[in-house]
């Protein structure tokens, strides 16, 4: 049997909910992160419509917005630093920016 999940944090602006799940023996535990990404995906789709057919504008141009849980996973994998600096451009582009499975988080079309 395990403990009932305990709320650790709720961030209203981002909709991120963090919960603690612990086991009876006190040695096993996990932290879960949940986020409703529907609003973000709808906003990104609108941005893609507005920029459709336009060229990427280079440095400083917004090309994607991702949920915090995905960002945290990339930090764990060593693709980016906690501050968001990309550590390996080729790996990050392949796994993140040009990944068709998560293209709904892109705000512009095309490859980067």
Q: What attributes does this structure have?
A:
single chain; 112 residues; alpha+beta; 3-stranded antiparallel sheet; 3 helices; elongated
The tally of domains stands at 2
Amount of helix: 25-40%
**Share of β-strand residues:** 15-25%
How many E-type strands?
Answer: 3
| Major β-sheet profile | 3 strands, antiparallel
Please trace the helix and strand order, writing H or E for each element: EEEHHH
Roughly how many Å apart are the termini? 47 Å
Overall mean confidence score, pLDDT:
83
Uncertain runs: none
**What's the gyration radius in Å?**
17 Å
- The secondary-structure class comes to alpha+beta
Morphology call: elongated
Strand order of the largest sheet: 1-2-3
Number of helices, counting only DSSP H or I runs of 4 residues or more: 3
Can you walk me through this structure?
The chain has 3 helices and 3 strands; from the N terminus they run E-E-E-H-H-H. The chain is an alpha+beta fold and 112 residues long. The chain folds into 2 domains: 6-35, no CATH class; 38-105, no CATH class. Strand 2 and strand 3 form a beta hairpin. The longest helix is centred in the middle third of the chain and has 14 residues, at 38-51. The chain is elongated, with a radius of gyration of 17 Å. The model has no long low-confidence stretch (mean pLDDT 83).
Brief description of this entry?
The chain has 112 residues and is of the alpha+beta class. Helices cover 29% and strands 18% of the residues.
Topology:
Blueprint: E1 6-11, E2 16-22, E3 29-35, H1 38-51, H2 68-77, H3 89-97
Antiparallel strand pairs: 1-2, 2-3
